[in-house]
Amino acid sequence: MALMKQAVIPEFFARLKKAIPEPETELEYDNVYHLLVAVVLSAQATDAGVNRATTPLFKIVKTPAEMVALGERKLIGYIKTIGLFRTKAKNVIALSKLLIERHGGEVPHTHEELQALPGVGRKTANVVMNVAFGEATIAVDTHIFRVGNRTGLAPGKNPLEVELKLLKRVPEEYRLHAHHWLILHGRYTCKARTPECPKCVVNDLCLFKGKTTI
């Protein structure tokens, strides 16, 4: 796999930053608990689809205790438009109970504590730590995995490999927002089937051999 030269990576991120100076998650939430639930629900689903489901849900549920009181059956009614909704409902109720039992109803700050919650994997933990707590973590979803490999920025055979390579290669000044820039770039420009290479701000730095020209 082609590897982008370390010397051009600062320019790569400088251009992404210029295009989107203050990138943010596209998931909608009012508090850290909402963010955790939204990220759990977003697995194999679009942020827009999750937002449609959680907008009415989050109006009536603000805390883990309120989620437990709502119950699994009623929760399913809100999230049934999202893929894997039955499993996700079960996980959300279970993680809400654990937040009450182990953490006083608060969302914990560490990888270990977050990943001990039902339905929370490394990617979800990274998103929560980054967005809610300002940690310079990089959550590798399908977009980042594709961009990391396609551009030569951080090629890897699995998400963890790409994540560890990004943490090593992304300059410190860009690390906090790196995963947002890469997600948005993958979602709107470096698309899976037909990347929009002509409008790409890092086209000349990218090592992808199959660049589109139209």
> In the residues, how many domains can be counted?
1
Summarize model confidence as the mean pLDDT: 97
Gyration radius from CA atoms, angstroms: 18 Å
Distance between the termini: 25 Å
Determine the oligomeric state from the structure.
single chain
Q: What is the N-to-C order of secondary-structure elements (H for helix, E for strand)?
A: HHHHHHHHHHH
β-strand number: 0
Spans of at least 5 consecutive residues whose pLDDT stays below 50 are none
> What structural class is derived from the secondary structure elements?
mainly alpha
**What does the largest sheet look like?**
none
Number of helices: 11
Strand content: under 5%
CATH topology: Endonuclease III, domain 1
Question: What's a concise summary of this model?
Answer:
With 214 residues, the protein is mainly α.
Task: Walk me through what this model shows.
This protein has 214 residues and is mostly helical. The protein has one domain (1-214): Endonuclease III, domain 1, CATH 1.10.340. The protein has helices at residues 9-19, 32-41, 47-60, 64-70, 72-79, 85-103, 111-115, 122-131, 142-151, 159-169, 172-188.
Q: What is the topology?
A:
Elements: H1 9-19, H2 32-41, H3 47-60, H4 64-70, H5 72-79, H6 85-103, H7 111-115, H8 122-131, H9 142-151, H10 159-169, H11 172-188
Helix pairs in contact: 1-11, 2-8, 4-6, 5-6, 9-10, 9-11
